[in-house]
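How it folds:
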Amino acid sequence: MIKETELAYLAGLLDGEGTISLTSKLRKYGYRYFQPRICITNTKIEMLNFCKDKFGGLIYISAKANSVENRRTAYRWSLSGDKACLLLASILPFLTIKKQQAQLVLVFQGTGIKNTKKEADGIVISKFKSRLANLNSRGLAQG
C-alpha cells in the first residue's frame, strides 16, 4: 500500500528533478506511437530506487561520471504509458510546478489517441506536444 506521504514526496521530486513528456517510437509501418512518460534524474541512486520500488518503472544511467569536469554519474528513473498516467492522477493534488503538464498529459491520455496513423490524430498529437513543450521550456519568465 502506497502512503499519501510517499505520493507527496514523489510529487516534490517530480516538481524539482523531473520531467513529464509525451514520447514517441517510430513503428515499422511508418507511423509514430505516443505515450506519456515521467522521469526523475539525480545522482543519488537511492532516491531513484525508492521510486522504482514503490511505483515501478526502470532506472538507467543518464550520464556517466566525468573526472575531468568533476561530474558524478546521473541516473534516471522513468515510468511510461498507463502506469505513468495512473501515478500522475494520484500525485496531481501534490504537484505544484508541474501540475499543468500533468493535467495536459492526463487530458491527452483521455483522448485515446496513441499514434499518427490518421492525419487528424497526428495534428492533435502535435498540438499536445507543442503545449507541453511550451510548459516545459526554460528561460526567463515573461511579464
